[in-house]
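Structure in, sequence out. Go:
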């Protein structure tokens, strides 16, 4: 891909009002008094080093050099331009420039740097900023995109000078906005006082609510309300742009940070406070909603951990490894390394849940033991010493009442009754 300055078809010849010829690139909007290198090559004219190497700016305003013959590009100034052998540390031949295609039209006459003083250079740069619509709150990166292809960009030679002139321009614009805001506020107050003085229905005893009903429909009141509403909206935007405001932020601290902004000055003190308090209330509501979401998420996560731990205990019981007599230490050895157990330990209530589950098992065992003893009474069966568990289990299961009794539960009842036989 060729640099747009290396394509002959991109260049067109023009004349200034005095008849002096200059050349304009219809793609990059670059303008030159001298004939472009690609046109010299096309016409077979011998080239000097300055014809071959051209200076450009990338989108960040950094200078680089491009060889129109080889396509080579470098950040370093080629020594051949200063009478050296032409060696340079290059970045390669690939394109690293950026440009945007603009409508083909007669461009501005090239900058011949014919400024009488540094002041004129700064004024030309400021006028460029004015022409492209730069505002005091616009970031430099955005401004650079708008001005880099204008010949007045080179009125100042270094990036540092341009940024200094840009900052000076922004401060000037901000001051103008502050002064305008003060003027507009005074004008609105004067118009309001004039409206009150011209209303013959108002007296010293008229309340504000009564005055509003009398003045309603007056276009001056509507205009004042509209301006106040717009000013409050702009001040709200200023608060949103200001970093560091939280529900706990004090008005005095924020006021000191923004009191030079035109949007601050455009409002009366009471209106500023109203907007600030409303904004802080919204921040409080957002913060409270965030806390509630976090609390609910934590609650659900803890519940999942508890449910998974209960599932682990039930599974251990089903496998016959846990009953109402199992001690906590023995259980921990059984489930050591299980993720559900580890998560429950981290939550801190594992032992309490285990004790609750053991109580459930104890209650269940008591009920099962009572059912077995009732069946034994109905069968007139007495468990005697020497009777094995298989014989005991076979005998009690002759009753349909114990169809749902598990082998594990039957064994626990047998061990208990045999121990007291």
């Amino acid at each position: 891909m060729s640099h747009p300055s290396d394509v002959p078809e991109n260049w067109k010849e023009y004349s200034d009002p005095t008849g002096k010829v200059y050349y304009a690139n219809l793609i990059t909007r670059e303008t030159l008094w001298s004939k472009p290198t690609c046109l010299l090559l096309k016409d077979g004219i011998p080239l000097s080093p300055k014809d071959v190497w051209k200076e450009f700016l990338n989108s960040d305003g950094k200078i680089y050099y491009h060889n129109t013959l080889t396509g080579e590009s470098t950040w370093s100034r080629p020594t051949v331009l200063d009478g050296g052998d032409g060696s340079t540390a290059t970045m390669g031949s690939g394109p690293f420039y950026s440009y945007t295609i603009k409508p083909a039209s007669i461009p501005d006459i090239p900058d011949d740097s014919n400024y009488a003083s540094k002041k004129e250079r700064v004024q030309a740069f400021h006028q460029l900023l004015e022409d492209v619509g730069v505002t005091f709150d616009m970031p430099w990166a955005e401004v650079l995109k708008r001005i880099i292809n204008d010949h007045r960009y080179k009125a100042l030679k270094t990036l540092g000078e341009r940024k200094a002139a840009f900052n000076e321009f922004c401060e000037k614009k901000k001051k103008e906005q502050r002064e305008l805001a003060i003027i507009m506020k005074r004008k609105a107050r004067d118009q309001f006082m004039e409206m009150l003085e011209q209303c013959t229905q108002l007296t010293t005893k008229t309340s504000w609510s009564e005055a509003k009903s009398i003045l309603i429909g007056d276009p001056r009141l509507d205009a004042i309300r509209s301006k106040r509403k717009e000013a409050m909206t702009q001040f709200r935007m200023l608060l949103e742009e200001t970093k560091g405001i939280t529900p706990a932020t004090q008005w005095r601290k924020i006021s000191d940070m923004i009191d030079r902004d035109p949007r601050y000055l455009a409002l009366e003190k009471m209106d500023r406070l109203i907007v600030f308090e409303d904004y802080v209330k919204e921040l409080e509501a957002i913060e409270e909603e965030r806390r509630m979401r976090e609390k609910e998420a934590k609650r659900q996560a803890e519940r999942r951990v508890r449910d998974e731990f209960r599932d682990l205990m039930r599974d251990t019981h089903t496998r016959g490894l846990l009953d109402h007599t199992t001690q906590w230490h023995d259980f921990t050895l059984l489930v050591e390394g299980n993720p559900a157990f580890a998560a429950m330990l981290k939550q801190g209530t594992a032992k309490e849940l285990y004790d609750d589950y053991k109580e459930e098992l104890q209650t269940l065992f008591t009920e099962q033991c009572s059912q077995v003893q009732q069946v034994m009474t109905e069968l007139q069966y007495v468990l005697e010493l020497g009777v094995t568990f298989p014989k005991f289990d076979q005998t009690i299961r002759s009753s349909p009442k114990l169809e749902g009794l598990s082998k594990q539960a039957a064994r626990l009842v047998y061990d208990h009754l045999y121990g007291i036989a």
